[in-house]
Amino acid sequence: MNKTAARWCYGITFAACIAMVLFGRLGQITGNELGFTLLCLFILLPVLAAVTGIVLGIQNGRCKWLYPVFAGFCSLLTQAAVFVNPLRAYLEWNTLVLILPSLVPAALGVLAGIAIAAKRRKQSRA
Hints:
Layout: H1 3-26, H2 33-58, H3 67-82, H4 87-90, H5 100-125
Helix pairs in contact: 1-2, 1-3, 2-3, 2-5, 3-5
């Protein structure tokens, strides 16, 4: 596996979550919590997770299967940090559903990347 690509994908996701936390904590979102949540946590982060999942899926290696879990928990930690709730409140079974908006697109991205890599290998053999 190209370790540089994996590091970039994990790093970009983590940096995006840090940027969202800084924007949420420092950027006057009072009264616009719903807009912040919809834009950052349900649009930008899932799209980023899907795109980086495709990049990781194209690469060879086992590290790509950890990425959906990483993206999901980054989303969970971002929500906990922005809305200043204690992390233990997010670790209950009913709130673990909050990892799904990033976990599912990341997993689908990894699967799409695997399909793209398989198609490329099949075309190169023919």
